[in-house]
Recover the amino acids of this structure.
């Protein structure tokens, strides 16, 4: 049982996913130790500070970098529970090893070595991803029942192909390896599908913002690629993290995914609520996507292995054991789109 009067560490606290998790912890009256790269950057911390001002809990910042060994130890001191959310989620990279895999894998090792040194730590919750379960849409076809489950691991990604997914699989494997090497703390991983919905900071840089902004800009006016994915609301994901941390019986991996969906469905949901925007849910032919691939930041191999495949994840473990009650995706997407309009990130029409 985690003692809620003790502080809780959140790594990457200024991130999109972490923002809603910190909010949840503050609502519960918990003292949050926020490990961030730039605690002096008020532009980044102000959204968390505003929450701490109005909610019962409190927040204290600690400077830490995934690649700076031992830098999480100070913030971890006295914590029984650690949420490790920090990991780069971007397509904007030069060197996949340096920009993605090192911070993900060495960073996880760094945080967990900190847990090994910190006597108070009882549980670590690592934010992994469905990307640690599958690499390409085509992989799902060969899964039992053609669905993602917690038993499956991504074996198709590499440094050269889907390096972000590779970074997540490598980091999660490292975590499961390290938990076996000691017996004081236990490990729970949360494996979300694509995260959407209003964050505490409407100017987030997570890839989650990119696709919705592209829809607002008109990039989907000719149609939507048949790119199927699962989606989860960022606020539901915060709840899943909280339960994974606090429930003594939580164990293993948890797929956290509200609905099986796709770009076409997301486009349709936005168009229905915001008819003035040039968005079409009409299916773009795969050959057209193949031709356009380099200009939309995809490789032809990614198009070949990801467009036109069904996507299904089994989220029953999260419902049964974490008590998840997922909100409708339509609410998530339209509220997110609305937030980005209000913030000026999407032009008002
Ligand atoms: P963000 O980019 O918003 O958050 C990533 C966080 O990691 C930021 O706080 C960032 O710090 C921090 N970070 C990156 N590099 C370093 C570093 N070298 N040292 C310290 N901190 C670092 O993305 P998300 O919130 O979307 O992602 C959070 C987690 O959720 C990640 O583990 C991601 O893989 C996972 N995830 C996300 C999904 C999604 O759809 N968004 C889906 C599945 C999993 P800073 O604020 O300083 O940039």
């Amino acid at each position: 049982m985690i003692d809620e009067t003790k502080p809780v560490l959140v790594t990457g606290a200024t991130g999109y996913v972490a923002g809603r998790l910190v909010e949840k912890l503050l609502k519960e009256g918990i003292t949050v130790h926020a490990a961030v790269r730039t605690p002096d950057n008020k532009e980044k911390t102000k959204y968390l500070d505003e929450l701490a001002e109005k909610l019962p809990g409190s927040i204290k910042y600690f400077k830490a970098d995934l690649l700076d060994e031992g830098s999480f130890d100070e913030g971890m001191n006295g914590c029984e529970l650690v949420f490790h959310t920090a990991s780069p989620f971007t397509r904007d990279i030069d060197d996949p090893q340096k920009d993605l895999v090192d911070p993900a894998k060495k960073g996880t090792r760094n945080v967990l070595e900190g847990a090994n040194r910190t006597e108070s730590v009882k549980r670590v919750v690592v934010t992994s991803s469905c990307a640690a379960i599958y690499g390409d849409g085509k992989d799902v076809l060969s899964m039992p029942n053609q669905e993602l489950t917690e038993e499956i691991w991504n074996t198709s990604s590499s440094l050269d192909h889907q390096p972000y997914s590779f970074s997540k699989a490598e980091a999660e494997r490292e975590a499961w390896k390290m938990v076996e090497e000691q017996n004081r703390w236990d490990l729970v991983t949360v494996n979300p599908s694509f995260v959407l919905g209003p964050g505490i900071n409407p100017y987030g840089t997570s890839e989650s913002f990119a696709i919705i902004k592209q829809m607002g800009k008109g990039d989907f006016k000719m149609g939507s690629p048949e790119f199927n994915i699962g989606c989860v609301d960022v606020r539901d994901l915060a709840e899943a993290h909280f339960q994974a941390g606090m429930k003594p019986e939580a164990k293993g991996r948890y797929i956290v995914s509200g609905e099986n969906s796709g770009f076409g469905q997301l486009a349709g949901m936005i168009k229905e609520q915001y008819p003035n925007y040039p968005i079409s849910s009409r299916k773009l032919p795969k050959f057209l996507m193949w031709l356009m691939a380099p200009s939309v930041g995809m490789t032809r191999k990614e198009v070949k292995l990801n467009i036109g495949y069904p996507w299904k994840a089994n989220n029953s473990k999260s419902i049964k054991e974490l008590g998840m009650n997922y909100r409708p995706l339509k609410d998530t997407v339209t509220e997110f789109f609305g937030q980005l309009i209000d913030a000026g990130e999407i032009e008002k029409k």
